[in-house]
Amino acid sequence: MNDISVIKFKGQSKLTLEGYVGYFLITKDGDLKYDVLQYPLSLSSFVDFDVDKEFKIFQRKIPENRSKIIRTSSGFKELNSDLERYIKNKTSSDKVFKDKMMLAIKNEDLDVLNTFVTDFFDGWVKALKISVTVESMSYSDLSKQLSKIGNTDETLSILKRNDLQNFSEAYPIVDPISGKSINNFDVGEKIYFTVLRFSDDKSKDEMIKKSPNAFNGQGENISPLVGRLISKEFVPELGEDFTIIKIESQGNYFKALVLNSMNLMTASVGIPTFRNNEGKNNEGKNN
Fold first, then answer.
1. pLDDT tens for residues 151-163?
2. Which one of 13, 133, 190, 270 is least enclosed by Cβ atoms within 10 Å?
3. % helix, strand, coil for the chain, step of 5
4. pLDDT tens for residues 237-280?
5. Measured CA angle at 103 (ends 80, 98), to 5 deg
6. Is 150 exposed, middle or buried (0-12, 13-18, 19+ CB in 10 A)?
7. Rg of the chain taking only CA atoms, in angstroms
8. Is the dihedral of CA 146, 215, 265, 252 positive or negative?
């Protein structure tokens, strides 16, 4: 199983005239996160979802649509609070829920996944017809997806400042369940990251030589790297949403424009072995 798997679903019950959209996210260690939106079908014009979209887009659509509908429907907030309690009780009382979910994902059978989601909500809503997709990825893949959020000409131009020009570009590893905001990291603290692009071939060759297990044959970073946070900077031009950070890892320097609302990894998930110049191995240790 990959680091993270997500079951995305969208459906409706013509019996209750309600629509449902949401996801169940589970890590390979069994940690679970979910977000589900219930809405009257009369408000379908407010809801814009495509289960085939990348998770980074899909997950952000749920709170966006929830906010729009709350402003329109007075009973919507209470309805979804009751649904939240149902899901929480169901996931905690069903001792094999996570096992069933992981097995359904492993089989990669959409009919099985459809039945899994429908059965889960059977105690809440009847005659639920849904469409389901599953998306599996590594922590690095998810982080690369989310690194694109907020990319505009203005934000990208900031990363070209004189003091950042020679830095390679990275993004901290996102941990949607157990992570913490960049606001809660201290300068000097350990931080996990994935490389988006190197500033030059020399930096790339040096990093691959020191951490060969973290890169594939094409030189792409496929496993989390560990570094030290050496700078955090609030950028007034971008409002309160972003922070520029600098990372040092084994003598290499990286820059990142981080969305403050992202939960970033704080604990190792199998950090690759680093090799120092003497050829000794140091597991998850900065040189």
1. 777 777 888 889 9
2. 270
3. 35, 30, 35
4. 777 888 999 999 999 999 999 999 899 999 755 444 334 433 33
5. 45
6. middle
7. 21
8. negative
- Whose CA is closest to 58, among 145, 125, 140, 124? 145
- Residue spans of the domains in the chain: they are 4-137, 140-283
Rounded to 5 degrees, what are φ and ψ at 227? -145, -165
Report the alpha-carbon distance of residue 48 to residue 239 in Å, rounded.
27
Phi, psi of 80 (to 5 degrees): -75, -25
Q: What is the mean pLDDT of the chain?
A: 87
d(C-alpha 126, C-alpha 109), whole Å? 23
Question: Tell me, what DSSP letter sits at residue 271?
Answer: P
Type of residue found at 176:
P
Assess contact for 113 and 134: CB atoms under 8 A: yes
Q: Which amino acid, 272?
A: P
Given phi > 0 = left and psi -120 to 50 = alpha, else beta, which region is 17? Answer: left
First vs last Cα of the chain: how many Å apart?
32
DSSP 266: -
Residues in CB range of 278: below 8 A, 6 or more apart: none
Distance separating alpha carbons of residues 176 and 126, to the nearest angstrom: 31
CB of 173 closer than 8 Å to CB of 194 = yes
Q: How confident is the model at residue 64 (pLDDT cuts 50, 70, 90)?
A: confident
pLDDT over 70 percentage in the chain = 92
